[in-house]
TrEMBL record:
PROSITE patterns: HDOD (PS51833). Residues 53-72 are annotated as: Disordered. This is HDOD domain-containing protein. InterPro entries: HD/PDEase_dom, HDIG_dom, HDOD, RNase_Y/CdgJ.
Amino acid sequence: MTDTPAMDIDPALAAAAREKTAARFIGTDLAHPAVAALFELSVMRLAREAVADPGRVKPTPPPPPGPLQMGAAEFGPSRRLVDDIVPPPLPRAFLALQEVLGNPRSSLRDIAAVVSHDPGLSALLLKLANSAFYGFSGRVDTIERAVGLLGAAEVHALAAGAAVSTLFRDNPYPDLLDIPLFWKHSVACAIVSRFLAERCGQKNPERFFLAGLLHDIGKVLLAVAEPEMVGMALELARRDNLSVLRAEKHVFAFDHAELGGRVIAKWHFPDALALIVAGHHDPQLCGHDPEPALVHVADMVVLALGVGTRPDPLVPALCPEAFASLNIHPQDLCLAAAELDERLPPLSMAFLETGTR
Ligand SMILES: [Fe+2]
Ligand SMILES: [Fe+2]
């Protein structure tokens, strides 16, 4: 997508695009230069889309009322504890791979041998190694070569994402959470997280790919474990005009970020990853640690660009201290948008086809 100024766009269409985008940014501080840059980018992109499809600038209809007709006080809070929700175990094939990747004496051949026992992961790695996402020249036709080209950290991130997504491949409650859109949002957040990690000079930026991929995993667990209560939270958010996050806290006394952090720890991923996931909506909970701040900013960028679990998602507020801690410029967020345009289609296609069907 081109982001050159929209000189040729009908002013009425441009004004409608601005109005609709403003409704999505209602909870943000447009005086912040990073938010303002994303807002202008989103207006321009929507206006360009509206040239081909004028219906795009019509206001988004509010979600339909849910089946529950109660007062807010009747929604809870619940006595459900965050540790009551137990995640399913990770697939054995992934645990075997994690073991071989964690052993410094493992050779490329050892890693490839374990990957080969998992047909889904083998197909994903080959598909990605041959996709425009990585841009390797020449055909990659063996697992050993794919593992060698991708590197151990990348293989670990992709395998973890594939392993977790296969646990939640069905879409049992599409009204609560659209699983294909959920993974598309997660892959988008993974791409932008890694891009921003590179821009701000983080060590091992591929770690942030996995953090972005798993940042909202608590949402899936909630929807699968407690569909009725998630339905209540969504209804409460709709009726009382609350963010879903606040509504989750009211109904569950915790939210998907806290639950996600616990689950990551229960799956024995590194503590740093659990901290990032737990802090992605409130990075100040983690002090001045820039790692949760980075995924917080990436999530906001992705939602500003419209890649959410619903069409035309609301944009969450940007924590200004989190943005400042990254030492990046507002313009970097526009570069992240261009990176997403290029990388999301091939990666989400390969990922969704392999992991979630
Ligand atoms: Fe989230
Ligand atoms: Fe998110």
